[in-house]
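pinned: reference chain
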Amino acid sequence: MKKEIAFIFDLDGVIVDTAKYHFLAWRNLANELSFEFTEKHNELLKGVSRVRSLEILLSIGNVTLTEAQKQTYLVKKNTEYLGYVNQMTAEEILPGINQLLDFLDQNNIKYALGSASKNAPLILEKVGLYNRFSAIVDGNDVSKAKPDPEVFLIGAKKLNMKPENCIVVEDAIAGVEAANTANMVSIGIGDAELLKEATYILNDTSGFTTDFLQKILN
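pinned: its structure tokens
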């Protein structure tokens, strides 16, 4: 390898799939407010903060709440979500991720987590990956949501790496935009049309083959 590089991973949809748990909790909240919330609607909440997610949800249902009511629902949603998270195990790690982290370890490549979720450390602990990351940036560290590059720039700083030497793995458009704005290489996981701004695109995490990794490292 010609230069030192590092990886920065988003969490949801990349390391694990907690979107399904967010969906269940948001859907139950919508049911309580007497409107339908679908999986298609849930796509709009990917990579978005909890407060902004509630705003989007309320606009879908055309519901107006007071600030106090919003806070009550935010706590209720998060409590339900954490109930699901606390039952997570290593079996929820997405295909190919353990092998990818093994490859990075074997090649002395540092990696960090860059997630908007304040629950990121808890999730990593539950699936047994917490101690593998050189640095963790979560919702407690950032003030600006993706597509602002703040989360990834903090990750690069914690790894003591230049942004241009970092490779970001993301499944959301906002995350890919954030990586590109930070002048980082971006690997999009998912729909090629949605993630067309990414430097590389894989259908899913099982695409992290040794051949693919050697290609991007060279």
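why pinned: Residues 6-16+93-217 form a domain with the Rossmann fold fold (CATH 3.40.50.1000). Residues 47 and 192 are 17 Å apart (CA to CA).
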